[in-house]
Amino acid sequence: MTRLKKVLIPISFNFQVRYFVRTELFRKLAEYCYPVVVLQWEQPDLVAELEAMGLRVYTIPNQPEQSEVIQLRKRINDYFLEKVVKTPTAVIMRDHEYQLIVTLRKKVRYYQNRVRQRLYSAKQFEADKRRLNELAGEMPTWGNYEELLGRERIEALFTTAPFLVQEDLLCRLAVKRGIPVFYGVLSFDNPTTRGSLPFVANRYAVWNRLNKEQLIRTYGAHIGPMVDVTGPPQFDFYFDPKYLVPREEWLYEKGLPPHRPVILYGANAKYFVPDEFAVVRMIDEAISSGAIAHNPVILLRPHPTDSYLDWQEFAAKLKNTYIERSLKRNQSDDKTNNKYSNFLLDDVVGLCSTLAHSAVHISYFSTLALDGICFDKPVVCPYFSPSPRRLSHKSIRRLYETEHYLPITRSGAVMLPEDEVQLIQAVNQALEDPGKLRDKRSKLKREYLNDVDGNACRLLVESFRSFLN
After folding, report:
1. Can you tell me the distance from the alpha carbon of 143 to that of 185, in angstroms, rounded to the nearest whole number?
2. Helices (DSSP H) in 207-307: which residue ranges?
3. Is 3.40.50.1110 the CATH number for 241-448?
């Protein structure tokens, strides 16, 4: 019998639980390797579940970053994205960040940092990377990780979030020890938003052809054969009916009226799109006035890392708005608690059923637009600011021009209303003629999601198996 190689797989936040556990990817990988899991927070129920699968699990809680580390990573990442990746996303996100600053003192500090960044050179970039590498070896968890790699005799690393400090440390250790690295890109924006990584992977698995081109542009043509286009494994759920509950059961669970169409509103992170409450209220009032036909209801889905409770308080004041939990645990006001939590099978079923049974999907520049096209649902992306005094219309519209989102914006598969009147018109059009943009949605799914059809996990496992061999 061939000995299976030991592969270390970190789980650093809840979306990775969905990626590895709920897709059954761990079970599939275990046919070709021996997964050793390192969990970055205390989660006894998840540990018990993984151990019941026959996996070895270590819990090594993440430690707060030193201020010098935070500053170094910021400078390095800004330079890398702007000068190495050369993505327009860097400038767009930087300008958006400035728009969100509300105090004069912070604006002055922001400008001071921007002046320093303009004077920042390639020589400083290399010096900062060396200094960051030195500081990495001084972090408390470095010794824990080093001991783990030695004790388990780890032979490969499978990372999906190497941009997080805890996985960054593991990647640095892997490079130091000559351990090969497999990088499964978790989200389609990561190659152009997440900054400098401490390695060039031995194999990459990406969502689409554009991601592959971005990596080649960043690291050189020689990595082309090392990049496999597999599609996103977490989308496989959408093509398996076992993750759906019947519509009547879903309506009952959500407390929704049985004879009214449902508008799904997927909220963005509150710090990123402040005052989004205004758009939900706008739609709710249009329903009450009859401006939106068919008397629909709104099902409000908070961002998974945001508090459920304040959205619940807001929805209680509206006449046509209901709310669902994105995750069973996203009820805290502490974003950290929401990020470091289990991602249950019920959460997967809840998401899939909501996507399938709602009539229209509305969200600001979110992955939810791609989720929606998998169910052939009309997608509406507001192309205006919910609060122009705080965040300009231009700032919102430029976010739709980021490198990862621009193909969606230009596809014609989503509606982009530029004001309240057009938003109401778009919702009415979606309710009246849901099939109008079907061909464009199908084309976007084919080109941007690798024609995802439930086989992304299989393709990723094939890529990983090839990497091991």
Report:
1. 27
2. 209-219, 247-254, 277-289
3. no
